[in-house]
Amino acid sequence: MQEQSALTKLEKDPQDALFLASRTGDAEYVSFLVDAEGVDVNARDFDASALYHAAHCGQARVVAYLLSRGAVASTAAFEGERVAYAACAPIRVILKRHESRPIMASLTGYPRDMLSLF
Hints:
mainly alpha, Serine Threonine Protein Phosphatase 5, Tetratricopeptide repeat, globular, disordered C terminus
């Protein structure tokens, strides 16, 4: 059976709808959820953000949108590192272009750009 429609999920939990829409590449619905419903782009389900889901599933438009809305993609942060690791090659290019903002500058000796390893 296919996943529930994002609209049905929205009725139950907008955050779940964001994860589903991110996985399926529904950029318009992702935009609606973030802009109109105020869903947090950095919230996590079990252990992954909407950006992780979109990157893992190769949803370039959704990845670009979430980055534009402040999704954490810094490779100095655990979540950003996971996103870079899970992303397919075209998504890594988008992440590399975005040049993640340093959010944990106090870390020393840690690879600041994990994307260069791929």
